[in-house]
Amino acid sequence: MFRVELNWDNLRHNYRLLKAEVGDYEIIPVVKANAYGHGTKEATLVLKEEGARLFVISTMDDYMRVADLSDVDFLMLYPDYTDRRQIEYLASRGNVIFNLYDFYALDVLPEGARVHINVDTGMNRVGVKPEDFPRLYEMASRKLKVEGAYSHFPVAKDPEFSRRQIELFNSLTEGKGLFRHINNSEGLIRYGTVFDGARIGILLYGYGRPDVKPVKSVFSKILQVKRIKAGESVSYDRTFVAPKDGFLAVVPVGYAHGVRRARGYRVFSEGRWYEVAGHITMDALMLYSPEDTFRVGQEVELLGPNNRADEIARVWGTVPYEPLVEIGTHPVW
User: Fold this and answer.
1) What are the b/e assignments for 22-59, b being 16+ CB within 10 Å?
2) pLDDT the model gives residue 97
3) pLDDT of amino acid 329
4) β-pairing verdict for 299-303 and 233-234
5) Least C-beta-crowded within 10 Å: which of 111, 185, 279, 320?
6) pTM of the model
């Protein structure tokens, strides 16, 4: 039982802030994976109003959320080239740009399909190896509309590794009249306007710099309040024992709703922080207070401007993307 709030004014603020800094340099919003838990169509509509014209999605699932938007383009990172009918349908739409990442896609893509060639300069995810780019580019140019080329920083905070990627990518693509992009959010922060555009995700959603504002908040509420005596344990494995008489609040959200079963997670409610007492269960977590501060129906912030994704990620031992895509992805009230 939780509620998701999306502050679209904050998304507008973040886009305008970045756009004011980069000018004509293109911001390419990343709305893949349900826009990092914010809603692919909703985020696209807001950013389209702000002037964005090219968006990044992952798969057919992403595209179906925005299939009725014909006046913007979508770069699809993971088209399923084993499904010829799907590829033909997407190509017929006119606003899908395919990630061309291997030679076998040339046999599947229909003539005239729009593509950006993905050059693997060090990420070792999908993408053609640098030594194969010239041949793929030549072959693709005979059949397809090769409109761009791109690569990706696996560790943008490493300036030397990133510099080598930039130089390699430039040596392969320079002078071909392609729209080129390699930057992600971290790359834009560190290296500025490299090439023609930057694929921006986490900065738009409010993380990575102190002047951007979080867009997503997730709330639940206290379902039950009960007294607990000193020495009583809470939840599975009895990992929490009440140090003194106090009060226990039950919140009906657990790891089935994206709140990871990790020690140290805490929530914010009515000006106070509460660390979860004991293990988070599948569909509930418990809070302890030595004082009578809980009431039934009291709102609890699971994620938001106080309980930020970057702080949750620190507790979870991961990156802010995970809390954003996991917590509260299916609102129920």
Assistant:
1) beebbbbbbbbbbbbbbbbbbbbebbbeeebebbbbbe
2) 98
3) 77
4) unpaired
5) 111
6) 0.94
Whole-number Å distance between alpha carbons of 121 and 189: 20
Residue with tokens 């699971």: 302
Give me the residue label for tokens 């693997």: 120
Please check the confidence at residue 330 and state whether its pLDDT lies above 80. no
Please give the Cα distance from 40 to 270 (Å, whole number): 31
CA distance 214 to 203: 9
Concatenated DSSP letters for 202-222? Answer: TTTTT-SSTTS---EEEEEE-
Which structure tokens are listed for 65? 């959320």
Label residue 1 by pLDDT band (50, 70, 90): confident
Q: What's the full length of the chain, in residues?
A: 333
Q: Which domains does the chain have, with CATH numbers?
A: 3-200 (3.20.20.10), 216-326 (2.40.37.10)
Would you state the structure tokens that stand for residue 23, as one six-digit string? 């000018």
Q: Residue for token digits 């070792």?
A: 124
pLDDT one-digit tens code per residue, 35-62: 999 999 999 999 999 999 999 999 999 9
For residue 151, the Cα-to-chain-centroid distance in whole angstroms is: 18
Query: What are the φ and ψ backbone dihedral angles of 133, each rounded to 5 degrees?
Result: -60, -45
For residue 257, the one-letter residue type is H
pLDDT tens-place string over residues 223-276: 999 999 999 999 999 999 999 999 999 999 999 999 999 999 999 999 999 999
Task: Quote the CA–CA distance of 227 and 278 in Å, as a whole number.
Answer: 16
CA 107 from chain centre, in angstroms, equals 32
